[in-house]
Amino acid sequence: MSEEPNEATQSRVRFLSDENFDYVIVQGLRLRQPKIDILTAPQAGILGFPDPAVLAFAAHQDRILVTHDKRTMPDHFAAFLAEGNQSPGIMLMSRKVAIGQAIDALLLVWEASSHEEWRHLITRLPL
Question: Are 115 and 12 in contact (CB under 8 A)?
Fold first, then answer.
């Protein structure tokens, strides 16, 4: 029996993790919530892409980018928006955040917000 899409599922947050994002977090998310929609860089075929191309791919796929890259991604994101591009947003997370806390933070975003709330925003997680 398939679920009919409704307003809640249509507005669910959709993620793209870049190639440097800790895959253990992705695995934990999928174990805790099998319905979560998170695409990894290898699954997307974007390994080795430069940051601007990753941002463009995330925008094209309408997926919020999750990354540990606090050093270069904010500047690339600002330039991406300044060029008039649309973005579903990016979420930055320090590698120092404990795995469980990282999973909880992303699950909270997925469970308690809609995809549109993050458009054009750069957010540091955990909130």
Answer: yes
Q: What is the dihedral of CA 47, 126, 89, 57, to 10 degrees?
A: 10
Rounded to whole angstroms, the Cα distance separating 120 from 107 reads: 20
Q: Where are the domains of the chain?
A: 14-125
The set of residues, in sequence order, having a beta carbon less than 8 Å from that of 52 and lying 6+ positions away, is 76, 79, 80
Which segments of the chain are extended strands (E)? Answer: 14-17, 37-40, 64-67, 90-93, 122-125
Task: Calculate Rg over the CA atoms of the chain.
Answer: 14
Instruction: Let me know the angle formed at the C-alpha of 8 by 6 and 9, rounded to the nearest 5 degrees.
Output: 70
| Type of residue numbered 57 | F
85 in Cβ contact with 59 (< 8 Å): yes
**CB-count burial class (<10 Å; 0-12, 13-18, 19+) for 26:** buried
Query: Is the pTM value of this prediction over 0.85?
Result: yes
pLDDT digits (tens, 9 = 90+) for 19-47: 999 999 999 999 999 999 999 999 999 99
